[in-house]
Amino acid sequence: MFSSRPAEVSQCWMMGSIKELLKNSLNDLRKEQLKEFQWHLKNDYKVPVSHLENADVLDTVDRMVQSYEPDDAVKITRKILMKINQNQLAKDLKEGAAAFYRKAVDDDSEVSNRLKKDLKQKYERMLEGNSEKSLQNTYLNNIFTDLYIVKNQTGGVVNEHEVRQIELNQSTAAEDASVKCNDIFKVQRDTGEQNRKVLTLGIAGVGKTVSVSKFILDWAEGKENQEIIFIFPLALRELNLIQKEYSLMELIHEYFSHTKQLSSLPEEEDKVMFIFDGLDECRFSFSFETSKRLTDVHEKTTVDVIIINLIKRNLLPSALIWITSRPAAAHLIPRRHIDQVTEIRGFNDEQKKVYFTRNSKPDMSERIISHIKRSRSLHIMCHIPIFCWICLSVLQPLMMTKENQDKTPTTLTGIYIHFLLSQMKQMKEKKHSASLPQSFEDVVLKLGKLAFKQLQKGNLIFYKEDLEECGLDVDGLVFSGLCTQMFQAEKPVSGRKVYSFVHLSVQEFLAALYVLFIYKNTKTNPFLLNWREKLKWIFMKKSLFNLHKSAVDSALQSENGHLDLLLRFLMGLSLESNQNEMKGLLPSLNITAEDMKHTADYIKKKIHQDVSSEKSTNLFHCLNELNDDSLITEIQKYLNSDGLSAQDLSPVQWSALVFVLLMSEETQEMFEMQKYRRSDEAVIRLLPVIRNTRRAL
C-alpha cells in the first residue's frame, strides 16, 4: 500500500511514469471492462460524468491524474481492478508502483549521500584564518565545546548592548530549560511535541554559527537526526547578494552543486531542513503581512518571498526551519510563526574550564582561569567563546615568562591592546619575508575608519565597496595576515566576497582607536553629527575631555546601546599607561590629569542624573577602565559595615550598589533582599539584581 510516499520526485517525471503504469494496466481491459471501470470512477470516486464521456484509455488516465495525486490514482485503480475481478492486473500494478517508488527513494538517497559528503567537507574543519590561504585547519570535532542553550525565551526587540545582555544572563533562572543542539528538533520528552520552526538567538560571537556547523556535521557523519534526508544551510549574508529571481529548486541547485538531478523535494514530515544562519545580517526586508503567497517549488520569485513562504508553511509545509539571529533582529519574524525560541548563552563556568583545558596545558589553563576570575568583567566576557580564544591568544604567551607576568592585562581594553600588538608583531615579521602594500599602522587606521562608520550604521558585514570607501587595499589586507585573526573574508557561491570583523568587540575596539587617531591628527570629533554641533566644536577648546564628553552623550542617547563598548574602549585607550603600551601605533595624546578628572567627574554626574540601570552599569565599567573606583569603594564600606539598610542612599549610591551586586558572583547564587532597606523604591532599584539571581530572599 502507498499511504505515504517514500520520497517526492520530479512532478513531471512522476506523472509521466504513473501514467505509463496506469495506461499499461487499463490497456489490458476489454471495452466492456473499461466501461465498468469508468462506472466505478463516477459512482465510487465522484469523477464527473462529463470527464469520462466517450473517454478511451488515454483520456481516462489523464482524468485520473488530473483529479488525484499520483499515488492516490494508483490506489484507486488497484481497488477498482479488484472489484471487477482483475486481480492479476491489480497485483502487477502494485509491483510496478513499488519498483517505481524504490527507484525514487534510491535517487533521493544517492543525492542525500552526495550532499552529506559535500557538507562534511565544508563543515568538518574550522578555518582559523583566511579561507583562500588555508592558514590553519582545525577539526571542529576536536575543538567543539558544548554551549549552554536554553528554551522558552520570548525574543523581541532588544534595546541594550549585547555585552550588557551577557552580564544580565550570568545566572540561570529556575524556569530555564537547557537543551542540546542536536535535540532541538527532536520530539520533546516532557510534551511529546516536536518543534518544526525554531529561532535561536545569541549575541555576536556566542556560537550560533558553530552550533549550526556541529549540527550539520553530526548529520553528515551519520551520528544524529538521520531521519532527515536533506539539510540545506543558507547563510543570509550570502543570500543578500542575489539580485535575480529564483525558484526554490533553482536556489538549491545554485548553492548545492550535486543536487542538480533533484527536481523536487520529499513532502513527508521531517525529511527536509532549511537553516537560515544570521537573520541580523539580512539586508532585505521581510513583509510577512503583504508578501505574495507561494506554494510551487518551481515558481520563480525573490529570495525574501521564498523564505517568508517557507516560514509561513505555504511552501513545502513539511520542512523543518532553523533560523539563527542576534537578539536585536528577532522581531523581523512575527512570534506566531515560530514554534520555539531558544537562546545560546555561550559558555557556562564549567564549559569555560573545558575550553581552556582543551586548548592549553593543564598548568597554563589553571593560571589563565585564575587570572580571568580575578577580573569580574573578563570572567563575564568569557561567556563568549571567541573572547575565550582572544584571552587565550593574549594571556598564554605573556604567562610563559616571569618577566611578562607583570604586564598581564586585567581590563577589557588591556586584553584588546595586547591582542592588537600581537597582530602587529606577526605582520611585521611577515613583512621581512614579503613585500606588503600597506603598513600595519595604515591598515589599522583604515580598518578603524571602516569599523566606526559601519558601527554607526549598525552593520557587521561589509562588501568590497565599503572597504574601498575607507581606502583599504582589499588584496593587500588579505595578504597582510589581518584577515586571519581580526578581519575575515568569505567567498560565497555568488562569487562576491563578504567581509566582517571576527567579533563585534574587535570592531568596537578598532572604532575607538580610530576616534583617538583622528582626534590627535585632525582635532576632529566624529561623534558630532549635525552642523550646529560641528560649528560649536570649531570654536571650543578641543580638549580630550570634550571628546570624551561627546562620546558619553552619544552613548547615552543611543536607544540600543550600540556605542557602549566603544565608550569603554575609548576610556581605557585614553589612560596614560595604555598609551605607553601603544607607543608606535597610537599617536601620543596630550593627556592631562585635569582632563581625566573632568571625564571621571562627568561620568559620575551622568550616573547622578539617575539614568537607567543599563546605562549606569556601562558608565561604571567606564570608570573601571579609568581606574576610578571611588564610588565603588564608598558603597563597599557600607556593605562591609552591615549598615546599608539604615542609610538613605542617593541615586548615584543606588547605582553603585546595583553595579557591585551585579558583578558579585555570590549574588548570582542568592540575593538576600532583607539586608537592604525595605521599600517600594528599594525593590524597583534592585530589580536588575533580583532578575539576575537564582534565589532571592
Automatic annotation (TrEMBL):
<feature type="domain" description="NACHT">
    <location>
        <begin position="196"/>
        <end position="329"/>
    </location>
</feature>
<dbReference type="InterPro" id="IPR029495">
    <property type="entry name" value="NACHT-assoc"/>
</dbReference>
<protein>
    <submittedName>
        <fullName>NACHT, LRR and PYD domains-containing protein 4E NALP-epsilon</fullName>
    </submittedName>
</protein>
<feature type="domain" description="Pyrin">
    <location>
        <begin position="14"/>
        <end position="99"/>
    </location>
</feature>
<keyword id="KW-0547">Nucleotide-binding</keyword>
<dbReference type="GO" id="GO:0005524">
    <property type="term" value="F:ATP binding"/>
</dbReference>
<keyword id="KW-0677">Repeat</keyword>
<dbReference type="InterPro" id="IPR027417">
    <property type="entry name" value="P-loop_NTPase"/>
</dbReference>
<keyword id="KW-0433">Leucine-rich repeat</keyword>
<dbReference type="Pfam" id="PF05729">
    <property type="entry name" value="NACHT"/>
</dbReference>
<dbReference type="InterPro" id="IPR041267">
    <property type="entry name" value="NLRP_HD2"/>
</dbReference>
<dbReference type="InterPro" id="IPR004020">
    <property type="entry name" value="DAPIN"/>
</dbReference>
<dbReference type="GO" id="GO:0005737">
    <property type="term" value="C:cytoplasm"/>
</dbReference>
<keyword id="KW-0963">Cytoplasm</keyword>
<keyword id="KW-0067">ATP-binding</keyword>
<dbReference type="Pfam" id="PF14484">
    <property type="entry name" value="FISNA"/>
</dbReference>
<dbReference type="Pfam" id="PF17776">
    <property type="entry name" value="NLRC4_HD2"/>
</dbReference>
<dbReference type="Pfam" id="PF02758">
    <property type="entry name" value="PYRIN"/>
</dbReference>
<dbReference type="Pfam" id="PF17779">
    <property type="entry name" value="WHD_NOD2"/>
</dbReference>
<dbReference type="InterPro" id="IPR051261">
    <property type="entry name" value="NLR"/>
</dbReference>
<dbReference type="InterPro" id="IPR041075">
    <property type="entry name" value="NOD1/2_WH"/>
</dbReference>
<dbReference type="InterPro" id="IPR011029">
    <property type="entry name" value="DEATH-like_dom_sf"/>
</dbReference>
<dbReference type="InterPro" id="IPR007111">
    <property type="entry name" value="NACHT_NTPase"/>
</dbReference>
